[in-house]
């Protein structure tokens, strides 16, 4: 043993080309000590000196383990009956120890009586996965002081203390035990373990825990002091100077932990649901659920790798249903292992029903529900009620004021309840949202338990009353935010439905930062609206959907818009609210138009018009007619569109809705230019612009300017069109409307791509726009604007806008004979055929004919003929132009 250690020490020193004196200086020891340890026979160094030597030699990994193991074995052999080779017996005290710079010791650093070090940790988990970052941090916190420091530097040092916190089932104990085993060699004097049962019904008494630890350390029962303070003092005395690890598992709070904290060299690792940040010098590590790949790896280790990896999609779905909670993943893995005939998908199907999922998350003695039940039992009645109410909603997250709204309480008590749920680890804080509000969420499994508690403890009527309070709070805030939005006003909300602001400070925030507030609450508003519809609160469901529709249209959240209005419409229908149903159908029709489902859009709007007339809602009927006229204009049914829009314009003026009238006038301008009456189109749209500016509404001004750009371009005034489109894009960007911005960029690109008429470019930009190379610069800018528009449409999933932008780009490329034009135009054509939009289909065919003409393709005439037939069927003036090009008789009319 002595030979082995001496040889290792000499080999590593020589490998580094160090003299004994140089190594001694590095390790903070005497050169005499180094010489004696290299001689054979020799005594081993004391543990602190051994660590200094390993560090000075730069040993890591297996080399370090071999070196430390040999030195430690030699040291303990010399203390339990004399050193190998006839060294002095245990307790004699030698000059060798003094030479190491540590001085004679009062008692051994090993357990009393020569017993081996205490190793109390539970067995390590053979299938432990992940947590590399946490383990690295624990290693840096718990590792003893760096070798080479003089004793005075470590005198009176506070214990190295780390706390692992987190919700039930997240793997706190597993990580603590794994870390203890991984770092075992760092604590040669032993590892102590105590289960505090802090979250159970019978938490451990710190005095009893100290008695248990002292017995392990060799204190006989009769010698145990009677009081907590006396036991704590004796415990600190017994472990002082020893390099040990103390693991305190499942602490309920500070009072359980503080009496057990040792001093000096002992490292302490605590697990608790609370972070215990008030402990002196603590490093708190809050554990998150496992990420998907790590959770799948754990599932593989428990259930079998080949089996799980054979169903990768099902495995990912299974761990997602467990929310990445290690306990839940271990349970489903154990169930799969116990049932070889099950596939992973079989278990997925069993977990699909949320009402039974907690029942499925159990196997033998392993279960998720008991830990949640214990945490729930510790809540005050008001916090338990808030837990159940908040958990019933399928909301990804919610702000603090929500608890007070559900409880019907003031903001202060509501905030206290949130803090209690956080302390119980039944709720998680996720930090501030876009609007600056603190935000909270349930873990998926915890939410399932909360829903169980709601169904067991709170009746349907009580639930509906609490839900209505919360919904009125959200609606009040949504109205505050909606009033400050610059967007298309759909007028779907019903101001007669009363609301109440739970916390005035949040109301001010919603008004000050409306877009950010809506973004933050987008998913929560969807959840509260759906819950209201399900609970029979149709008026609240309808108002929430209607109030949010303006925001959804502004930001292009068409799926949210469609889902909310459909759900609210069904609720209104069940409750017999015909006016509400009409409003929701109007909103749905507008949304479907944005989603290119024009036939369904017109059908919904026709039904909305019928219901509006039935209930005598003249303003609602006028708004429906405006939308119907717009849809008809897009599909090329120009006569019907013009008649519908002119009627809507008159009625909107009578109803006192000037901004809606301006939008309708802009749509009428679009129809008129499609009919070839471009002069009237420009005049009509300019009248709309006057209305928008007189109202000071930036969104409507931007909307009308975009329409004016199209009318001016059709009139052949490309320079004016360009200026209108630029201004529209700037305003849309200012109000936060990405789709409006993209549509304006598309109009700008079309205007830039067309040549200027003589005298069009006026003012300081004339020379730049009309000088040499101006056409090429405008063309490059046009392509850039159109590319930006396409990128926005693509990102937002706006297929109509993307197809129209592809058409505009394709027309430019076709005019200039670029080879990519045909492929781009055919992509656009497929969209117009699929969506049954004959006017744009004909326009695309004309552009394809231009591209084919550049290539000398005889199919160009066939393409023009097909376009002519489409235009003629629509009664479009474009048919006359094509007839002249084809040498055909002019169409009638």
TrEMBL record:
Keyword annotations: TPR repeat
Q: Pfam family of this protein, just one?
A: HTH_31
Q: Which residues form the HTH cro/C1-type domain?
A: 9-64
A molecular function (GO) term:
ADP binding
> In residue terms, where are the TPR repeats?
582-615
Q: Which SUPFAM superfamilies match?
A: lambda repressor-like DNA-binding domains, P-loop containing nucleoside triphosphate hydrolases, TPR-like
* Stretch list, region Disordered: 24-49, 79-126, 753-776
Q: Does the keyword Translocase apply?
A: no
The biased composition feature labelled Basic and acidic residues covers 92-111, 757-771
The domain of life is: Bacteria
- Signal sequence, renumbered to the chain: none
Q: What is this protein called?
A: NB-ARC domain-containing protein
Organism placement in taxonomy: Bacteria, Bacillati, Actinomycetota, Actinomycetes, Streptosporangiales
């Amino acid at each position: 043993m002595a030979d082995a250690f001496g040889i290792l020490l000499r080999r590593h020193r020589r490998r580094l080309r160090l003299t004994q004196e140089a190594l001694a200086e590095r390790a903070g020891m005497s050169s005499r000590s180094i010489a004696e340890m290299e001689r054979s026979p020799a005594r081993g160094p004391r543990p602190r000196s051994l660590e200094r030597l390993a560090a000075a030699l730069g040993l890591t990994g297996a080399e370090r383990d071999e070196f430390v193991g040999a030195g430690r074995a030699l040291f303990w052999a010399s203390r339990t009956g004399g050193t190998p080779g006839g060294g002095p017996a245990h307790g004699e005290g030698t000059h060798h120890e003094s030479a190491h710079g540590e001085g004679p010791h009062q008692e051994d650093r090993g357990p009393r009586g020569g017993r081996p070090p205490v190793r109390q940790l539970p067995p390590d988990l053979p299938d432990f996965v992940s947590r590399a970052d946490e383990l690295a941090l624990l290693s840096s916190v718990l590792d003893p002081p760096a070798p080479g420091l003089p004793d005075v530097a470590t005198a009176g040092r506070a214990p190295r203390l780390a706390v692992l916190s987190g919700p039930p089932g997240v793997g706190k104990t597993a990580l603590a035990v794994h870390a203890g085993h991984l770092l075992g060699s760092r604590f040669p004097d032993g590892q102590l373990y105590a289960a505090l049962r802090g979250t159970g019904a019978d938490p451990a008494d710190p005095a009893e825990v100290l008695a248990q630890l002292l017995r392990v350390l060799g204190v006989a029962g009769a010698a145990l002091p009677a009081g907590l303070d006396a036991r704590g003092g004796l415990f600190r005395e017994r472990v002082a100077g020893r390099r040990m690890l103390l693991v305190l598992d499942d602490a309920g709070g500070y009072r359980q932990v503080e009496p057990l904290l040792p001093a000096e060299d002992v490292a302490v690792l605590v697990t608790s649901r609370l972070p215990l940040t008030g402990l002196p010098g603590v490093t708190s590590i809050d554990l998150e659920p496992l990420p998907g790949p790590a959770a799948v790896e754990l599932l593989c280790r428990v259930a079998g790798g080949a089996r799980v990896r054979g169903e990768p999609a099902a495995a990912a779905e299974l761990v997602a249903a467990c929310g990445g909670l290690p306990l839940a993943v271990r349970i489903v893995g154990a169930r799969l292992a116990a049932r070889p005939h099950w596939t992973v998908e079989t278990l997925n199907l069993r977990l699909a029903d949320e009402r039974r999922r907690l029942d499925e998350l159990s196997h033998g003695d392993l279960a998720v529900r008991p830990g949640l039940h214990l945490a729930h039992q510790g809540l005050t009645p008001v916090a338990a009620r808030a837990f159940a109410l908040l958990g019933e909603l399928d909301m990804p997250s919610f702000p603090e004021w929500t608890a007070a709204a559900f409880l019907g309480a003031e903001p202060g008590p509501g905030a206290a309840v949130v803090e209690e749920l956080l302390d119980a680890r039944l709720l998680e804080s996720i930090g501030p949202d876009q609007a600056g509000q603190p935000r909270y969420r349930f873990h998926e499994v915890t939410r399932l338990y909360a829903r169980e508690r709601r169904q067991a403890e709170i009746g349907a009527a009580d639930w509906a009353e609490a839900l209505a309070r919360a919904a009125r709070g959200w609606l009040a805030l949504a109205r505050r935010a909606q009033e400050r939005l610059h967007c298309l006003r759909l007028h779907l909300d019903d101001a007669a439905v009363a609301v109440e602001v739970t916390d005035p400070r949040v109301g001010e925030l919603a008004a000050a930062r409306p877009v950010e507030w809506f973004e933050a609450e987008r998913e929560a508003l969807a959840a509260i609206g759906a819950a209201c519809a399900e609970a029979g609160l149709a008026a609240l469901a309808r108002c929430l959907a209607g109030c949010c529709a303006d925001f959804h249209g502004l930001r292009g959240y068409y799926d949210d818009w469609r889902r909310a209005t459909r759900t609210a419409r069904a609720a209104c229908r069940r409750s017999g609210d015909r006016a509400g149903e009409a409003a929701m159908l109007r909103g749905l029709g507008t949304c479907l138009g944005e989603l290119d489902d024009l036939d369904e859009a017109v059908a919904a709007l026709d039904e909305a018009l019928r219901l509006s007339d039935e209930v005598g809602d003249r303003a609602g009927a006028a708004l429906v007619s405006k939308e119907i006229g717009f849809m008809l204009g897009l599909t090329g049914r120009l006569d019907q569109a013009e008649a519908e829009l002119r009627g809507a314009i008159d009625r909107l003026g009578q109803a006192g809705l000037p901004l809606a009238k301006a939008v309708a006038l802009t749509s009428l301008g679009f129809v008129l230019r499609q009919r070839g009456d471009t002069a009237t189109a420009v005049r009509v749209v300019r009248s709309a612009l006057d209305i928008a500016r007189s109202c000071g509404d930036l969104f409507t001004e931007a909307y009308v300017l975009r329409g004016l750009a199209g009318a001016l371009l059709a009139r052949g005034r490309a320079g004016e069109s360009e200026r209108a489109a630029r201004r529209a894009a700037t305003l849309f960007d200012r109000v936060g409307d990405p789709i409006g911005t993209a549509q304006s960029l598309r109009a700008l690109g079309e205007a830039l791509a067309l040549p200027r008429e003589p005298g069009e470019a006026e003012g300081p930009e004339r020379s730049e726009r009309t000088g040499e190379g101006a056409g090429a610069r405008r063309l490059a800018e046009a392509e850039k604007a159109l590319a930006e528009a396409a990128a926005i449409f693509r990102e937002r999933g706006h297929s109509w806008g993307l197809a129209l932008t592809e058409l505009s780009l394709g027309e430019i490329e076709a005019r200039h004979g670029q080879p990519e034009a045909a492929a781009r135009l055919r992509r656009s054509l497929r969209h117009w055929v699929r969506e049954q939009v004959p006017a744009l289909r004909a326009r695309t065919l004309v552009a394809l004919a231009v591209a084919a003409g550049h290539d000398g393709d005889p199919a160009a005439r066939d393409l023009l003929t097909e376009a002519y037939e489409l235009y003629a069927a629509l009664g479009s003036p474009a048919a006359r132009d094509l007839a002249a090009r084809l040498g055909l008789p002019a169409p009638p009319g």
